[in-house]
Amino acid sequence: MTNGQTNCLLFGHESESSLKKNDGVLVKRRAVSPLLARSPLPEKELPVSPPMICSVSSISAPIGWLLLDGLAVRFSATSKLTFVIKLMDLKSSHSSPVLTDPAPLSKSRLGLPSNMAPYSPAASPYSSSGLYLTIPRIINGKLEDVRVNSWLDAMIASSPPRKKLNKDMISVTQLDDHDAAYQTWMMSYPSALNSFHLITSLAKCKTIALFLDYDGTLSPIVDNPDHAFMSSSMRAAVNEAANYFPTAIISGRSRNKVHEFVRLSDLYYAGSHGMDIMGPVRVSKSVDKYCIQTTDSQGKEVHLFQPASEFLPMINEVYESLIEITNDIIGVKVENNKFCVSVHYRNVDKKMWDEVGVRVFGLLKCFSRLHVTHGRKVLEVRPVIDWNKGKAVEFLLESLGLSQRDDVLPIYVGDDRTDEDAFKVLRESNCGFGILVSNVPKETNALYSLRDPSEVQEFLKSLVRWKKSTELQTEAIATK
Ligand SMILES: O=P(O)(O)OC[C@H]1O[C@H](O[C@H]2O[C@H](CO)[C@@H](O)[C@H](O)[C@H]2O)[C@H](O)[C@@H](O)[C@@H]1O
């Protein structure tokens, strides 16, 4: 590290910063040398004063990672301006407090030696309260401190650009930088396809339980949420996977809606971010007032678990109000997901995003038992209850008789912030792992990554091929 200008490389944007600091700039840094990235690496927090970010040019993402002389540095800024980052004074004493990984992989029930595990930093849980970083930016040629602390920043940062980069509009250097940033990030979150041998060696003699998110994981992100169809090849891949592994879809959509999209019967469905689960009849004898025994569309006995059932009238009321208060904003779509409501702003002019937020958060002031979380260009209004996709995974594992067992490997595949709850549960329990679907670097509690739904499909097919071949080998050994 040197004083003065330093070359930097934009890592793409991530969703939110966990950093809280009012005076000066606080950065998290992490070495990204290929050698180090393979082992659980302590993150260091580095308070920098005077601020290290001091002048501006061409970074348009509000939050992200920079590669500075081999160190990954997270930055945050309001998005409407562009930034140049120069390193002025790092004051790196190397004695700053060390943030260690809360779930050391060396203790993992996965049996994965720590030096083989892909490093994943301890991501902070996402919060809807926005960002907390003071950062200097240039306004009209003047350097000003800006407190970035709003839901608008979270709305802007909520989703990577979906459209393919237009190679005519963008320089080769920028394309190279984008790719280099992704490749560097993948050292920490390796491709689940490239790491397939490692994954199957972990899965040997274990029951894999599959948990799959829907939008952005099994279906590509599209402008109209009603058109987020699953391809027939993906349906076939999920169906085959469900023949070999207990499989559940866990979606933010209503359970009925996601079932309409997936149209497969041999799996379990959890809608409304896990607040509406139709699962197997539970072996547990404990009485739960939210759990009722019923039959599914095929007449099979199932358990229906709806921990937010008392919120139904409130959710319907807020849904009607949200339609009313946003109907003059072109492009807003309000979706009733039964126990939660989505307010989509993907098709709203960016200039109006602020207004969408003002109205949604304004209305929510009258509903203290509801809160808002951020998804991909969507505000999700949900009951304030201690339930999420992570709890849904735990609930389903227990229902299937697969919890607290060393011979079970749960794998959760998802692309969005609400999936982080599930990644975190698996990460902290050390019994399985998450796979983040993303084609841009993001902070995550997942262990592996896949670029897009087509890679998810390939991964599912590979799991089935592997399972079939191990079964054949076992049969061959048995008949010898
Ligand atoms: O948990 P998920 O299954 O991923 O559901 C999360 C939200 O997914 C849907 O919205 C997202 O996908 C849409 C279709 O591609 C896209 O138009 C939208 O911008 C995305 O946010 C769904 O419509 C929401 O209700 C879910 O909350």
From TrEMBL:
Catalytic reaction equation(s): alpha,alpha-trehalose 6-phosphate + H2O = alpha,alpha-trehalose + phosphate
Keywords: Hydrolase
Protein name, as recorded: Trehalose 6-phosphate phosphatase
A Pfam family the protein falls into: Trehalose_PPase
Family under the similarity heading: Belongs to the trehalose phosphatase family.
Keyword Kinase: no
GO molecular function, one term: trehalose-phosphatase activity
Biological function: Removes the phosphate from trehalose 6-phosphate to produce free trehalose.
Cofactor: a divalent metal cation
GO biological process, one term: trehalose biosynthetic process
Entry EC number(s): 3.1.3.12
